Amino acid sequence: MSSTHTHTAPLVELRRIHKAFGGVHAVEDVSLNLYPGEVVALLGHNGAGKSTLMKMLAGAYPIDSGEVLINGQKAAIRTPVDAQGHGIESIYQTLALADNLDSVANLFLGRELMTRWNTLDDMRMDAEARKVFQRLNKNFKNVRVPVRRLSGGQRQVVAISRAIYFNAKILIMDEPTAALGPEETAMVGQLIRQLKAEGVGIFLITHDMPDVFALSDRLAVMKNGKLVGTYRTSDVNEDEVLGMIIAGKLPPNKAQTHTL
Ligand SMILES: Nc1ncnc2c1ncn2[C@@H]1O[C@H](COP(=O)(O)OP(=O)(O)OP(=O)(O)O)[C@@H](O)[C@H]1O
Ligand SMILES: [Mg+2]
Q: What per-residue confidence (pLDDT) applies to 94?
């Protein structure tokens, strides 16, 4: 991807982002970018600041200081609706769904389709939902039961469907396979490849090294709120990545892909 990157504006540029919770510097001076069709793995210990950084991009937390640029333009992202307006969708480790609602209602939650008489267009939502669920998982049929009765994989289909249906350009996946079995994990991997081929840029937070090496183009490591380094995944090995995560140690003689 390197040759194309020099000619394409980044989809996302995070510039010198800061966030503190009281005295805790959750994110300190982090700069990171993401190109179309690229998967950037975001790595680091528990509490490193990965989710906080991504929640700022998703509009869930306000940024203390720093800038976000989308397609080279400064973006004011203060709410999740602002983020959605920029094509940013997120899938969280906790699979945030409304447990008592069914899959169709969850897909359209807060963005319901309306008829021209301004009533809920249940028929269209049902039909559209079935189409997108089927695309992800042919066997997913029980779309009208409360999602609390679904398996982890089925719940993940619903969560990912939200991103696909609303045409995510920038997808934040925060430990998307943490609650899944091996088959469902493979499905998410397949889906990441598919979205990437469609030009979606993906920030993938994961603790799973095989996933990092199988799915990411670049990786960024955070430690104690700070960025340790950003490398092309094919330029580093697992030991070097673990050295960055555990000790904040940079691999010798390797070029970083991004500095500010
Ligand atoms: N809403 C909050 N209020 C107060 N402190 C918070 C809040 N969210 C995160 N923190 C703190 O910010 C720091 C970074 O947390 P964050 O959740 O971003 O880490 P993480 O890298 O996603 O970790 P994990 O791998 O465990 O998910 C931690 O010290 C955490 O306790
Ligand atoms: Mg987290």
A: 60
Q: How many domains does the chain have?
A: 2
Same domain membership, residue 259 and residue 180: yes
206 C-beta closer than 6 A to ligand 1: no
Tokens describing residue 146: 């409360």
Q: How much distance in Å is there from the Cα of 140 to the middle of ligand 2?
A: 28
What do you get for the CA distance between the two ends of the chain, in Å? 20
Interval 179-192 mean pLDDT: 82
Q: 222: domain range?
A: 1-87+168-260
Measured in angstroms, how far is the CA atom of residue 51 from the centroid of ligand 1?
7
**182, 76: one domain:** yes
CA distances from 254 to 207, 227, 231 (A): 22, 16, 8
Higher pLDDT, 175 or 19: 19
The closest-lying atom of ligand 1 relative to the alpha carbon of residue 53 is 18
State whether the beta carbon of 52 lies less than 6 angstroms from ligand 1.
yes
**pTM, rounded to two decimals:** 0.89
* Whether residue 119 is found in the same domain as residue 177: no
Tokens of 111: 């963005």
Residue pointed to by tokens 């993401």: 34
Based on the fold, state whether residues 114 and 237 are members of the same structural domain: no
The closest-lying atom of ligand 1 relative to the alpha carbon of residue 19 is 12
The finding on whether 63 has its CB within 6 A of some atom of ligand 1 is no
Whether 106 is covered by a domain: the verdict is yes
pLDDT category of residue 3 using cuts at 50, 70 and 90 = very low
